[in-house]
Amino acid sequence: MLLYLFIIIFLIIVGTAAWASFKAAPWVPTWQYDYQKILNLVDLKEGETIFELGAGDGRLLPEFAKTKAKSIIGFEISVLPYIFGWFRVRKLKPRVQFKFEDFYKADFSKADVIFCFLTPPAMKKLKIKFEKECRPGTRIISYTFSILDWPLATKDKPTEKSIPIYKYLSGQKNG
Ligand SMILES: C[S@@+](CC[C@H](N)C(=O)[O-])C[C@H]1O[C@@H](n2cnc3c(N)ncnc32)[C@H](O)[C@@H]1O
């Protein structure tokens, strides 16, 4: 009986991780070294709402909560990182919400800022959703991967070895 339970839990963990990788990206955490750069680029102001698309184990959510943002919402569909993240942010609720939800189903018009660390195919798919749903001026910050054909607001890559972080403003020409 215990063995069956173990197998079921294992399959749920592996299955949801594989599904998340197929949908957008596997779980790879952002480098702690880059947190401050990300905070500078998201530039959260009082009363704003930030969405993190694929929040992994929720490590960035408490960082965003250090700002004056009104609402910090992370989306995750892989069970194992979600459990770690849920535990991490449990005392920061309700200002920080960590949703076990597919970000492709979220309404992006509710976000002032969107942060993501995904893959090039996911960015290609999201570009259409950004163009359809984001309000003009929504700040979109993407760690490592750019949005093809969108004009850049800023790019952080001070050295050859640094991971690039791209910032865009929706509603700009093409964006
Ligand atoms: C590269 S990791 C980034 C994790 C986190 N944002 C960070 O920077 O540390 C991408 C995350 O997106 C999640 N993911 C992939 N597709 C998703 C989807 N459709 N909805 C919600 N989360 C998704 C994966 O499970 C994974 O944890």
Would you mind describing this structure in some detail?
There is one protein chain. The protein has about 180 residues and is α/β, with parallel strands linked by helices. It has one domain: Vaccinia Virus protein VP39 (Rossmann fold), CATH 3.40.50. It has helices spanning about 1-25, 35-40, 60-65, 80-90, 120-135, and strands at about 50-55, 70-75, 95-100, 115, 140-145, 155, 165-170. Strands 3-2-1-4-5-7-6 form a 7-stranded mixed sheet. α5 (about 120-135) links the parallel β4 (about 115) and β5 (about 140-145). The longest helix has 22 residues, at about 1-25. The N and C termini lie far apart (about 55 Å). The mean pLDDT is about 95. S-adenosylmethionine (SAM) binds near residues 23, 30, 59, 76 and 104. S-adenosylmethionine (SAM) binds near residues 23, 27 and 103.
